[in-house]
Each structure stands twice: as structure tokens, then as C-alpha cells.
Amino acid sequence: MADEEFFRNLPKVTLHDHLDGGLRPQTMIEIADDIGYRLPAGSADDLADWFFETANSGSLAQYLTTFDHTTACMQRAGDLRRVAREWVDDQVADGVVAGEARWAPEQHLRAGLGLDEAVEAVAEGLREGMDAAAAAGKPFIARQLLCAMRHADRSLEIAELALRHRDTDLVAGFDIAGGEQGNPPTNHLAAFHLLRDNDFFYTIHAGEEGPLESLHEAVQVCGAMRLGHGVNIVQDITRDPQTGRYLLGRHARFVRDQQIPLEVCPSSNLQTGVASSIKEHPIGTLIWLGFNVTLNCDNRLVGSTTLSREYALVSEAFGLSTMQLAQIALAGASALFIDHAERTRLVQQMTLPWFQASVNERGGGVQPDLWDR
């Protein structure tokens, strides 16, 4: 098994990483002390343990309750700026070269900030992080995705907010987030139509806990350009008990054949009950069948994880070669909501380190087909 340190030294991209799910515990403690907020633990280590253990419940609803504490520490402009800056710093330290920080501005207004002020504060933090990374010789591409909460009724307002800031504050896309059960993506069609009319990117949380119908609506009715999680697409895949052959239903085949990127977050899915172990996670089947899989953390604090750890877990569980994991990393880069020329340069820059790592892994031999096992 290639360990976490091995993957930390290789360039990666994160598409699905919630800003409010990756705070440093010490940062939370310092902000909470300043604003008089009571956290569930007093030390950084104990707080990190509390988040992981509370979220590790097998229930998305229980998992989401932990965000009451993180968002409480992200209500002032300075705190949003600090969290965004540290988000970049932590990604760079993990060997990530580009990423989209997603968050829901509507959840950060309790201290008097307006929606626009909140977006501007996060943009300032992301810029500070990028400037520091460039000065250290480790350039990083940061963007923000604005989420609307799918159980609320502000999605059109948040879509309008995203469009206002698309050219000034690193806002690259839109998303709907929150509990999927009972909150279908079609509740937010007006927002998606507005974004389409204005040629703007968006992804949709779908297929995390909801039924196949939620995925179908996200893709065929709402026009999702990427799918947040998407792992429940396996509900439309069966396996012949006699031959072992996989049989794809029409929707699964469409998602696979259109190569709609899936933002898969293995450790998070284990915490919310998608699978009981990493070896039983649908990602192995999805990779094998040629779906456009990208690998992500979802929430680094809540999942006690890093992107390098996710690569190591998947590598060990499914026996993937370095070249197979390279394809996943490059799929993430190719799916970024950024300018095509910038994306192309990034893919080119990422390719050589992964190829060289694969050559070293195989002792310099001839590289087989990427999916040859």
C-alpha cells in the first residue's frame, strides 16, 4: 500500500470540500473564546475527536448536526477570512494544487453580515492563501462555490448572489446542500434555470442518501454539470449471479456514457451509512465500470481525514495502481469550474509527477493500459 505521505507528495485537486467542515480545531477554540460560544470540548484534540465520533453515526441527519458548531464560529467577516485563508494553507500542505471551497452564505448572517459581505470576506481569505502559496513556490488555484440549503427557500437569491460575484470574488459555481431526503432538487428549478440562462456552472448534491429518482431529477430535469457524491447510482446497477457481469440501467448508463463527474467522498459516506467499510464502498464498482470518478474529502474536520488519506484508503481497498489513481486526480482537474486554458495548463503540470511516480512504482517498466489489472 502506498501510504498517505506518498500521496501527499503528488498533485491533487479537490472539488467537494465544505469550508465549514474543515476548520482547524484550535481556530474554533480561539474564535469561540472571543465570541463567548460554548464548544462541546475544550482542547483541540478533544474537539477533533468529538466531531469525528458524533458524525460517525450512520445517519446524514446526525452528521449534519455537527455543523451547528462550525458555522457558529464563522459569523464575522474576519473569521470567514481566517477560515478561508487556513483552508488554502491546509490544502497546500496536503499536496493539493487546486480546489473549490463550498459553503452556504445564508448560514453566516447571524452577526449582522450581509450576503455580499460574507462572499467578499471568503474571497479575501482565499486570495491571501493563494498569495502565500505562490510566495512559497507552491501556487494554488482557489475558487468558491456558493451553496443554497435545499430545505430552505433562498436558492434563487443565492444563485443571484453567485452571479453578482462571478467576475470579482472567485465565485466559480453554485450548489444545493443539506439533507437530501424529502428535499428534491426540482424544488430549486428557478435557480438552475437562472444559472443556465446566464451560462454559469453548478453542481448538485444528489445520490448521497436519496433515492435514484433524486439523481435522475438532478441530471435530467435540473441539468447538473457534476454530481455531489452520486454514489447511489449503484441502485441502477445489477450483477448477473451466473456470469458476474454488471448490468447498467438506463440512467446509470447515461451518467457513465456522458462522463458526468461524480464527486465521491468515501470516508464521509462511511460515516453517513452508505457502506459499512471502505471495501464495500460503491467507488470500486464505479471505477471498474468507467464512471468519471473524482476523489474528495467532503469535510476534513468532521471526517478526520485529508485528501491524501482518501487516496491511500481507496488505493489499499481496491488495489489501484498509481496510474489508476492518476486518472482520478486528473479527472478532478478536468472537472474544475475554471477557465479552459487554466484547466489545461493545470492538467499538463499535474501529469508528469504522477507518471514519474508510476514509473518508480513499476521499476521503470513499460506502462500498461490505465485500467489493466
Class derived from helix and strand content: alpha/beta
pLDDT < 50 runs, ≥5 residues: 365-373
Major beta-sheet overview = 4 strands, parallel
Distance between the termini: 16 Å
The fourth-level CATH homologous superfamily is Metal-dependent hydrolases
CATH topology: TIM Barrel
What value does the Rg take, in angstroms? Answer: 20 Å
* Helicity, as a percent range: 40-55%
Please give the number of β-strands.
Answer: 10
Give the CATH class. Answer: Alpha Beta
Q: What is the average per-residue confidence, as pLDDT, rounded to a whole number?
A: 94
Structure commentary:
The chain has helices spanning 4-8, 25-35, 44-55, 60-65, 67-72, 77-93, 115-135, 155-164, 189-197, 212-221, 250-257, 266-271, 283-288, 300-303, 307-318, 322-334, 340-361; strands at 12-18, 96-103, 141-149, 171-177, 204-206, 227-229, 237-239, 246-248, 262-264, 293-295. With 373 residues, it is α/β, with parallel strands linked by helices. Strand 7 (237-239) and strand 8 form a beta hairpin. The chain contains 17 helices and ten strands. Helix 2 (25-35) packs across helix 3 (44-55), helix 8 (155-164) runs parallel beside helix 9 (189-197) and helix 16 (322-334) runs antiparallel to helix 17 (340-361). Keywords: Hydrolase, Metal-binding, Zinc. Its EC number is 3.5.4.4.
Quick structural gist:
The chain has 373 residues and is of the alpha/beta class. It has helices spanning 4-8, 25-35, 44-55, 60-65, 67-72, 77-93, 115-135, 155-164, 189-197, 212-221, 250-257, 266-271, 283-288, 300-303, 307-318, 322-334, 340-361; strands at 12-18, 96-103, 141-149, 171-177, 204-206, 227-229, 237-239, 246-248, 262-264, 293-295. It has a 4-stranded parallel β-sheet with strand order 1-2-3-4.
